[in-house]
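Deviation from plan, reported transparently: heme C complex.
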Amino acid sequence: MNGFWSLWVMGLVVLNAGITFFLFVWAQKVEIPVLPDGTTGHVWAHGVLREGLRRLPRWWVFASASFFVWGVGYLLLFPGFGGFKGLLGWSSHAQHAADVAVNEANIAELKARFAKMSPEDLAANPVAIRIGERLFIDNCAACHQRDARGNPLLGAPNLVDASWHWGGDTASITTSILEGRQGLMPPLGSLGADTVTDLAHYVLSLSGAPHDPARAAAGEPQFALCSACHGPTGEGNPVLGAPSLVDSSWTWGKGDLAMIEHVITDGVSGVMPAWKGRLGTDETRVIIAWLRSQAGDRLAMTGR
Ligand code: HEC
Ligand code: HEC
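Because the crystal trials were delayed, the predicted structure below was used instead.
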């Protein structure tokens, strides 16, 4: 701030401080006439109350004087008096820059320390998993839920079980996060409702879920169509993001007959956005460390 507005603010400050100072001194000196009975002669409440006279209490005078001195001192040392920068040269911009620099130095130190640790050690490091959890809540929880157990409405998979669409080793998970993923299960309703139900019973039989054996047997030959992506035994194919149908982990629902019929009839396709524009490998490693700490042995993570 400079030029006219600086002078304007300075003028207002001097005027205000001047009036305040004058009133303060004047209030100490002024003599209010006192009647012989010790009152000012002002009468209140129809003569019931008469106004007495007391000096200002010492603590009040002292406090006011201190505040005044403090205020003037502040304006001398810090910015506030128009365009005057203050004797200390302090500014909120410089303070902010200094705080950010300290923060970045701390983070750089942490990153360097984390970079030397194995995924297993990271997952056992309380600071790393706390940062990982924060990053997960900020970036991922909206779709995968706060506890990382997934959301069937969006087709966001559970990230803390042993079942993975795209592979559960650290490298595959890192690629899933940084590059994004989109699986495509085509709609196959054209097979007809009967065939879809047979296939659904066969899918249920794969994981040992309750099913109709006759219908499952009828569905088995049809599964050739599915095995192109889900593998001949339904164990899944991480190259295509086709999940295993032989475990009891389901992404798009609870794995009941109606849900499986719906997936086969209408198809499904989840979209995992790419995070590399927003998160680096360092952040990704600590997120995976948190996932790992939540999943324990269930994460099939190996290597770096
Ligand atoms: C907009 C919703 C959304 C957000 C936000 C999101 N994801 Fe995903 N994520 C998905 C969906 C949907 C899939 C399944 C993609 C597919 O296979 O079709 C997925 C898949 C994944 C996979 C692969 C899972 C597997 O079984 O192979 C990982 C790992 C993953 N997400 C981690 C993350 C992390 C970590 C974040 C935060 C940095 C994140 N996701 C943010 C929706 C999201
Ligand atoms: C072109 C490859 C492809 C073919 C063919 C295919 N699928 Fe899929 N299927 C996928 C992919 C990829 C997903 C995961 C989609 C996603 O989550 O984004 C999937 C998901 C599923 C799911 C949901 C799994 C879960 O965890 O919720 C079921 C059930 C399923 N498929 C059954 C079948 C059956 C039965 C057939 C044969 C009739 C079949 N699929 C054919 C690729 C395929």
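The chain has three domains: 4-24+34-90, 98-183+273-298, 189-269. We consider this an acceptable substitute for the interim report.
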